[in-house]
Amino acid sequence: MRTITFNGQRFSVLDDENVLDTLLRNNIAIAHGCRAGACQACMLMAKADQIPDDCQHGLSKVRIQQGYFLSCCCEPEQDMDIQLPDLKAEKHLATVTEKRLLSARTLSLRLQCRLRWRAGQYITLWLNDSARCYSIASVASIDDFIELHIQVYPDGAVSPSLANNINVGDALAIQGPFGECVYDNKQNQQNLLLIASGTGLAPLLGVARDALSQNHQHPIHLLFRSKQASDFYAVDALRKLKDQYPQFSFSLNSDEPAPDTKDSSTDTWQLHLRTHFAELRGSRVYICGSDEFVRQARKQCFMQGATARDIICEAFINFSPER
């Protein structure tokens, strides 16, 4: 049985247990969020030769060299001596400048912060010792704010507080940005297909606006999928883009299509893709949403001709009860 030593205390690691779970089981308070290595909230440090190879994915080369690892992904292969890193310098204070509902379950927060970021990346937002990842919908060259779209879960650890307790003028701690789901103007000769589910719209709305602001002339289509028609949001913003830029179009797809809008489709999103985008060879595809949705959409787009190199994905981690 492997052991970990933390602050002079030694703990046994159970079979199929990671470092984070071992510490939490022994009532050691460790900040954490997604439990899947995305938010990087649970980073710890150890000697390089004690760290397994598969628990540093997404960390910078500098962090890897310094012995950082993601405790939620680390199942020790030997005894480990671990310690908390000092991440204070990597957190930034952001001021809430606007807060509004985009739909019954979707909250928009706009933040002011001295931070370099790109549309489509994501930040980790901290509330006490809980952390959640949210994608950036705004465009740095156009907007002077970071905009987040947040699905509110009534029993969640973070989103209800953001919806009910955080006000304009409050300061929030954020970390990042992270992620590579961004527009690259080297692909300005490609058609762009953007496939979003739920608040996966946030990064792809940013990517679309970024591409258009850089004069991308080839067609850009955004397919917005939602389980319920009532969960569609920012449709007016999509229509304005369509009116302003002839190369931009969008479609809405739901299990319950809205009968009062010409933008909705009665097809399933898979059928809509097969019917309207049967040949994706040479296209650049961006997919954002839940892990299962991203997996299915990536497979279908690959089968319809998009190369693996041209499919850019950002999968949202599902939390219980909040993702």
From TrEMBL:
Domain 2Fe-2S ferredoxin-type spans what residues?
Answer: 2-88
The record's Gene3D superfamilies line, in alphabetical order, gives: 3.10.20.30, Nucleotide-binding domain of ferredoxin-NADP reductase (FNR) module, Translation factors
Tell me the SUPFAM superfamilies matching this sequence: 2Fe-2S ferredoxin-like, Ferredoxin reductase-like, C-terminal NADP-linked domain, Riboflavin synthase domain-like
- List residues of the FAD-binding FR-type domain: 89-184
Cofactor(s) needed = [2Fe-2S] cluster
Q: What is this protein called?
A: FAD-binding oxidoreductase
- Species per Swiss-Prot/TrEMBL record: Zhongshania borealis
Please spell out the taxonomic lineage of the organism that makes this protein.
Bacteria, Pseudomonadati, Pseudomonadota, Gammaproteobacteria, Cellvibrionales
